[in-house]
Amino acid sequence: MIIEQNASSSPLALSPFRHVMGRYVEEAILQFAGGSSDVDQKRGLALHGPADKSDSGPQTIRIGIVSSASGIQQVTSWIQSFNDNPTESTGARPFVDQTFPGFVHAFDCKIITSADYNEELSIRI
Predict the structure, then answer these.
(1) What's the CA gap between 65 and 113, in Å, rounded?
(2) Which residues contact 114 (CB under 8 A, 6 or more apart)?
(3) 3 state DSSP class of 39
(4) Integer Cα distance of 48 and 37 in angstroms
(5) pTM of the predicted structure, to 2 decimals
(6) For residues 49 and 2, what is the distance between their CA atoms, to the nearest angstrom?
(7) Cys bridge to 45: 53, 105, 106, 121, which one at CB 3.0-4.6 A?
(8) Residues of 47-57 as b/e, b for ≥16 C-beta within 10 angstroms?
């Protein structure tokens, strides 16, 4: 609705929209390993892997964590779990909450952490 100021009176008068222009845009077809395609990124990665999947095995991403000692431990534990373990769907919304197969399976890539890359912050109170 459009709110218009009526010149003859102080209250605002409401008038409905006359026309709403719109158009439907199809989902993009996404490309995955082996020339496969799918409209759903989670399903495509789980079934086929990334389009640039290497035959030489998983690639690596090295990261450093800057945090307190407990923060470094929490992030490291989460990354180890995220790399290899699927995140199960709740089933409540089947097209949204799909099972994620784990980072290594989905992206053919592993996230690596090491104490050599981390920086521990000391917390002063």
Answers:
(1) 8
(2) 62
(3) coil
(4) 9
(5) 0.58
(6) 48
(7) 106
(8) ebbbeeeeeee
